[in-house]
């Protein structure tokens, strides 16, 4: 069955998280993704532990369905190979500091000269323009400068990083939908596009309610633990053995929560909790009242009661509990694949389910330069030329290295 992006060629000049996440989504939807890596190190995430048989598990789960070509772009012959690949591509993606691609001679203008309708996307820490354009940018820097770290964590605590690389994933997702939009436009008009986004802007663009509250009333969002700024009860509450989340955030749910879950109908008549504004004003007292009841039983007692009362709620899992959860398993979010070096390994499943096949894991992540010879042969290079390029340090032929 044909996947949505089957036949689309992507030249992936990205590393670590933001760019590779974007190209992974394209690859899962069927795009032919060729990953360009420097050598001998390759993508920086190849060094991340844990490693199995010398291969990074973290790299492997983020780079499936891609081919690896190890290329020295500082040499003229390396740039020539890149441009030949770009001339045959539909999409080029890079995520280096502004100016790096231009210095290497593989920027948008250079690629457009050989492929006029190319879609070229750049992901950087702070964007291609503005006073911070040359500033180095990692996920944690963007989380701090987007205000997100000041609104995460416990009140009066130190600034807290979101537990995942949120701004990296936000930037990869933003680039993804922009690229797909540009591709649709190309199908309609034949025109290519240059796109760029940044870790800072992509994360900031996810703060709509905070943006509205600031410009509506001057409110500056601060760390609020697990609480919601606009409604309550809507947070995690301590139980006898852990925590349970509750979303009783309208009048019907509040009544069901008090009567059917807590069995404390008197809370409905308590003037401290009689309206949403009152509950927000007395949120500490409300938490105390709820946790007095929740402390009497374990989380496994409260979740079924919440479900029976049609009040949204759930356990606060550790990550291993999440991955072992029967619902996650039933939704195929943990899959398996055979990797030539790691062996049988787990893979993250696709969060998209569709009426027809939409994504597919077609091949495991490549080792460094695994497909260099294969790709160069497709460009017309002979076996002798490939051997010479390898000997000259222009390419790294992964198969040749493994054989040695």
What features would you describe in this structure?
This protein has 404 residues and is α/β, with parallel strands linked by helices. The chain is 40% helix and 16% strand. The protein contains 18 helices and 14 strands. The strands form four sheets. The chain has a seven-stranded mixed beta sheet, with helices on both faces. Strands 9-10-11 form a three-stranded antiparallel beta sheet, covered by helices on one side. The chain has a two-stranded antiparallel sheet with strand order 3-4. Helix 1 crosses helix 7. It is elongated. The two termini are 39 Å apart. The model has no long low-confidence stretch (mean pLDDT 96).
Keywords:
404 residues; elongated; seven-stranded mixed sheet; 14 strands; three-stranded antiparallel sheet; alpha/beta
Helix and strand arrangement:
Elements: E1 9-13, H1 18-28, E2 32-37, E3 51-52, E4 55-56, H2 57-62, E5 66-71, H3 76-87, E6 91-94, H4 100-104, H5 108-114, E7 119-124, H6 139-145, H7 166-189, E8 193-198, H8 199-204, H9 208-217, E9 234-238, E10 243-247, H10 251-261, H11 276-281, H12 283-294, H13 299-308, E11 313-315, H14 319-324, H15 326-330, E12 334-339, E13 343-348, H16 372-378, H17 383-391, E14 395-396, H18 398-403
Helix pairs in contact: 1-7
């Amino acid at each position: 069955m044909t996947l949505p992006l089957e036949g689309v060629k992507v030249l992936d000049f990205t590393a670590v998280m933001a760019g590779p996440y974007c190209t992974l989504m394209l690859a899962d939807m069927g795009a032919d993704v060729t990953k360009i890596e420097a050598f001998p190190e390759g993508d920086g995430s190849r060094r991340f532990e844990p490693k199995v048989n010398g291969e990074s598990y973290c790299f492997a789960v983020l780079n499936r369905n891609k081919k690896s070509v190890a290329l020295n772009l500082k040499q003229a012959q390396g740039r020539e190979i890149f441009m030949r690949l770009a001339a045959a591509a539909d999409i080029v993606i890079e995520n280096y500091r502004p100016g790096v691609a231009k210095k290497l001679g593989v920027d948008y203008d250079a690629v457009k000269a050989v492929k006029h309708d190319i879609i070229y996307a750049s992901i950087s820490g702070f964007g291609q323009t503005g006073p911070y354009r040359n500033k180095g940018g990692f996920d944690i820097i963007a989380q701090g400068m987007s205000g997100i770290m000041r609104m995460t964590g416990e009140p009066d605590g130190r600034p807290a990083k979101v537990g995942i690389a949120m701004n990296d994933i936000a930037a990869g997702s933003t680039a993804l939908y922009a690229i797909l939009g540009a591709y649709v436009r190309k199908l309609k008009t034949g025109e290519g596009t240059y796109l760029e986004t940044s870790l800072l802007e992509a994360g900031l663009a996810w703060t709509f309610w905070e943006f509205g509250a600031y410009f509506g009333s001057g409110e500056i969002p601060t760390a609020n633990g697990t609480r919601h700024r606009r409604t309550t009860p809507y947070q995690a509450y301590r139980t006898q053995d852990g925590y349970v989340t509750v979303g009783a955030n309208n009048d019907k749910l509040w009544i069901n929560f008090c009567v059917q879950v807590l069995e404390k109908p008197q809370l409905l008549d308590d003037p401290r909790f009689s309206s949403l504004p009152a509950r927000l004003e007395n949120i500490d007292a409300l938490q105390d009242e709820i946790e007095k009841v929740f402390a009497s039983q374990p989380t496994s007692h409260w979740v079924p009661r919440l479900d029976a009362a049609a009040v949204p709620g759930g356990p606060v899992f550790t990550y291993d509990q999440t991955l072992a959860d029967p619902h996650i398993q039933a939704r195929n979010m943990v899959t398996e694949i055979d990797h030539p070096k790691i062996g049988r390994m787990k893979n993250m499943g696709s969060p998209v389910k569709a009426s027809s096949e939409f994504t597919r894991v077609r091949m495991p992540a490549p080792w460094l330069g695994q497909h260099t010879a294969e790709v160069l042969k497709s460009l017309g290079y002979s076996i002798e030329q490939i051997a010479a390029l390898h000997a000259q340090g222009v390419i790294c032929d992964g198969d040749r290295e493994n054989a040695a």
